[in-house]
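FW: tagging you since you asked about this chain on Friday. Here's the raw sequence from the shared folder, copied in full. Didn't touch anything.
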Amino acid sequence: MRYSEEQQKIAKVLLEGPKTLEQLREATGLDAKKLNEELKELLKLKVVERKIDKSELYLAQEAFFTGTAVQIAWIKEIDGRIIGNGKRGKITKKLQELFFEIVRGNNKKYSPKWCTKVKI
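HL: got it, structure written out here
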């Protein structure tokens, strides 16, 4: 199979890891700023990026990881301390549902922009 120059560039950035957010945006069309804007609109929450103290994690009502391998995964505990009630929180649940709706092509707003159909 032969890949286009653009596909090769995207694969290189994703495999090697982007050096900057700008490189990620160029390769995928998505960056943290855009993602935060979408989250504000979808969840009607204020999104703030800042450094936090570890003690804030212990007091959190919920926490989750995001990334290529984990997609969106809730965090049950940190350093043996239960986060919230020890179960997946409402925000994490909404994000996971939205994520899978998009990647499965079932979201008319995002799927056409963020997914590419592949014939098998």
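FW: The longest strand covers residues 64-67.
HL: agreed, and The radius of gyration is 17 Å.
FW: great, closing this out.
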